[in-house]
Amino acid sequence: MKFYYFHLMPYPMDHAEPSSWVTLSNRHYDPAVGHTLYNQYLDQLEYAEQLGWDGLCVNEHHQNCYGTMPSPNVMAAMLVRRTRRAKIAILGNGLPLRENPLRLAEEIAMLDVASGGRVISGFVRGISAEYFSTAVNPTHSRERFYEAAELILKAWTEEGPFPFDGRFYRYPYVNPWPRPLQKPHPPVWCPSQGSNETVEWAAKRRFPYLMVFTPITRIAQIYGEYREACERHGYTASRYQLTVNLPIVVAENDAKADEMARAHAMWIYHVGLRMAPPFWRPPGYLTEPSLRRVLDNPPKMPTELSFEDLEAGGYIICGSPATVRDKLRIFSDELRAGIVCSGMNGGSHEKTLEMMQLFAEEVMPHFRDDAHVDETAGIGR
Amino acid sequence: MAETDLARRTLTVRGTPIEMVTAGRGAPLLFLHGAGAAGRWLPFHERLAERFLVHLPCHPGHGGSPTAEWIEHISDLAFHYLDLLDELGLDRVHLVGASFGGWIAAEMATMASPRLTSLTLIDPVGIKVEGWIYPFLFGMDIPELVATVFHDPAAAMALMPRDQSVDTMIELARERTAIARVSWNPSLYNPLLRRRLGRIRARTLLCWGEHDRLAPLTCAKTWQTEIPGATLRVFSKSGHVPHLEEPDAVADAISEFCAHKDSR
To answer: In this predicted model, which residue has the larger pLDDT, A74 or A265?
Structure first.
């Protein structure tokens, strides 16, 4: 199994506001604290490469304390020059949020060329709240996503200049310099929470599917749907097309790990993902069939999840190295996921580095049958 | 008038199916509803129906009218209702629109004033007014929304969803989607409309709630300046929806305005 270190770059804080997104005033953001945090977070990502992680992940979110990376490409650029081996996975860029997605094709190509072909390019729609923060019309989200993806892939693979005349994006000359180094283009991943439409779209194009912060039963169901869709499109999914993203908390024994998880990992759900109801479901963001599925069987809001819910539901992995190994076996052997993306939080920079080291020494080596395989060879394109 | 007296029917307007209620007697009057009021026959309509033959269609994607994917811009809705006049064989009508419906009505008037016997706009949105930014309704929860739209919160009861079933929630989401499609950004206005208001030749009545917090009286003054000869009536016990908050007074003001010899 391959291990990717995933960073949200949160701004950890407590507050009593109804939403950590869109309306949480940025007066709470202290740039001096932010300076320290950014540098610690980048140190953690660089350390992950030294410890043997296969990939480093960044992602895009706007106007919140959950993840302070409005431009993941900026963070990826910093990592490109400070690392040598690890893949740099941008999970992802919010395609429909861009007014000029050709600029994305250019930025990713720059990163790919500068990094010597280590970039993985996640394509996402952006979560509901981003449509309030960027003012992009959520009723256009899906169509803009498909159209921007088509534009970017063409810009990477077809010789320019050529015109592109879409419904949302129009260019008389598509001819980006540089072109990406990886051929035919950097691997494309689809991080998602399992809408039928995205599963189908990704499977058809052989783009790996990444489940983010989802209970394990739902992961199993969506993986099943994805594998089935791949068969329908005439091929069998590689294990490296199935990726999961979940927080891991490891400590010298189960009790200590529990204690750390309760103190630090819960913040993501109880504060980071706290969102005022209007921001959950902007109009037209979900298709009617998808909305009906959600309303027929409403999931618990992140703020309603207890630590026990997260543990039992497989939202997080927590325990001693032996316990974490056992739980990871479920992902590697039963769900047959090829890549695990995980962030860690020890409560302080130093404790986080210690936790990373413990994981790299006591857990990772037990999952290295595929150490010599390049997980991106022929995948995602 | 009991619900049974209302003629509720579906018809197809240049390929677009819609549901419409028609009731009353007198000169034809087309009423264009605002957000959240689709298909609701209210005391205000009851009063108007004493003097007019009231046509109350549901916008596509609202109430009993299915979503029309081709509608991408507010002018698409305006053309849709001009098509409806053709479908109904109405040469001229009294046109009344409230809020979002008022925006559509104003767009229609800039395109085809000669088809309008009169034009009444009740707290319309749709134009950019210096110094004013419409509050972003999509970001509000229900209590905030009620406080923004109604002067008297009790009047909001008239627009309560009929239940909390999944079907009702889907229907509300469909309506919000149809509105967002044409009004998310720019939020609740068409940058091109304001200059075009000068083309309106129909006699125009502006009805405005004195306590409107969505489109306050300062907006009314701009509409009055831009539409040649427009009359402004202010309703002192109303917010954004005077036809819900003072239904008889607003209906009577419209009847009185339309009784003018130039409007017949």
So the answer is: A74
Q: What is the CATH number of domain A2-367?
A: 3.20.20.30
What ipTM did this prediction achieve? 0.94
Domain range summary for chain A, segments of one domain joined by +? 2-367
pTM of the predicted protein model: 0.95
What is the C-alpha separation between B45 and B16, in angstroms, rounded? Answer: 25
CB of A168 within 8 Å of a chain B CB? The answer is: no
B13, burial (CB in 10 Å: exposed 0-12, middle 13-18, buried 19+): buried
Cross-chain CB nearest to B180 (options A139, A288, A295): A139
Report the distance separating Cα A198 and Cα A211, nearest Å: 11
Mean pLDDT of A129-147: 97
B172–A contact, CB cutoff 8 A? no
Strands B52-57 and B93-98 come out as unpaired
* Domain locations in chain B as residue ranges: 3-263
May I ask the CATH class of domain B3-263? Answer: alpha beta
Q: What residues have CB less than 8 Å from A2, skipping those under 6 apart? A: A54, A55, A240, A338, A339, A340, A370, A375
Residue whose entry in the numeric block shows the structure tokens 């919000």: B176
Long-range contacts of residues B246-250, Cβ cutoff 8 Å, at least 24 apart: B247/B42, B247/B43, B247/B44, B247/B47, B248/B43, B248/B44, B248/B47, B250/B44, B250/B122, B250/B207
Number of helices (H) and strands (E) in chain B: give both, helices first.
9, 8
